[in-house]
Write a structure and sequence with these properties.
Layout lengths: L2 H14 L5 H8 L3 H13 L4 E4 L3 E4 L12 H17 L2 H17 L2 H8 L14 H13 L3 E7 L5 E13 L4 E7 L4 E6 L3 E7 L3 H6 L6 H16 L6 H5 L12
Antiparallel strand pairs: 1-2, 3-4, 3-7, 4-5, 5-6
């Protein structure tokens, strides 16, 4: 559990019960009591009125409430549509997370807005299952967040298989498939890879010699700039920006796909 989520859960637990010990909070959150002590202290410093002390128990001052969330109907429709797209096309972990988030929102909405949210008649395209896709998405997403390198077995449009070690930088969804934006060591340049053509993806430790040769500017921003320049060279355009650089040139073959 991320620290921000843990702090929120501590407040929610204290709202639901009159008094909780650090040991009780630790059991609920599956962390150490020392972590609870530190988290409670941080919450107090940030202005949350928690009373009590270590060894006795903690409680919220009466009348304390989290700042309420308010939404317009259009905002709720946008959230529901986004959640449905995530459930259909992202990896299962994000599907579970977005369902949990929407359930939390539903519980704090007044009845008219709750009805508007549940009655949203906006839907995304149905999910088309691809072998290994969700597992690869989950693995690549975590690798990006943890700044890890990945070894790929990749199958191109002609069926040829290659092995690549890449630094994953971002994931883009094009309505039919996901693309991985990455720095490719085989090409010593930025490349895009269709996730549905990845036969295997495994995290690997950075190699010392490659770390020493790594350009200092490798980043998602640098990838976008490289795609912009490549798109201008291929299309003869000079002012369309990053959206053009990432726009598919056909439904199946994105610009600069290698």
């Amino acid at each position: 559990m991320r620290r921000a989520d843990r702090l929120f859960q501590i407040v929610q637990l204290l709202r639901a019960r009159r008094l909780m010990t650090a040991a009780g909070l630790a059991r609920e959150l599956e962390v150490s009591t020392r972590t609870v002590y530190r988290d409670v202290e941080d919450l107090i410093v940030s202005g949350v009125p928690i009373e009590g002390e270590a060894g006795v128990g903690y409680q919220l001052q009466k009348g304390f409430e989290l700042r309420p969330m308010t939404f317009t109907v259009d905002e709720l429709h946008a959230l529901v549509l986004g959640a449905r797209l995530v459930q259909a096309w992202a990896d299962p972990d994000l599907g579970v997370a977005v369902r949990g988030a929407m359930s939390k929102i539903e519980t704090i909405l007044p009845e008219p807005l709750r009805a508007a949210m549940l009655g949203t008649a906006l839907f995304g395209p149905p999910h088309r299952t691809r072998a290994g896709g969700p597992d690869h998405l989950r693995r690549l997403r975590h690798a990006i967040g943890e700044e890890r390198w990945v070894w790929l077995e990749y199958v191109d449009a002609n069926g040829a298989r290659t092995e690549r070690t890449v630094i994953p930088l971002g994931l883009y969804f094009w309505g039919k498939q996901w693309l991985l934006a990455a720095y490719c060591w085989a090409r010593h340049d930025y490349r895009s890879f269709r996730v549905d053509r990845i036969a295997r993806a495994d995290e690997v430790a950075p190699e010392p010699e490659r770390l020493a040769a790594l350009p200092a500017t490798v980043s998602l921003e640098a990838y976008i700039r490289a795609m912009e320049e490549r798109s201008r060279q291929e299309c003869g355009e000079t002012s369309h920006g990053a959206e053009l650089a990432l726009e598919p040139s056909s439904p199946d073959e994105p610009t600069a796909l290698r």
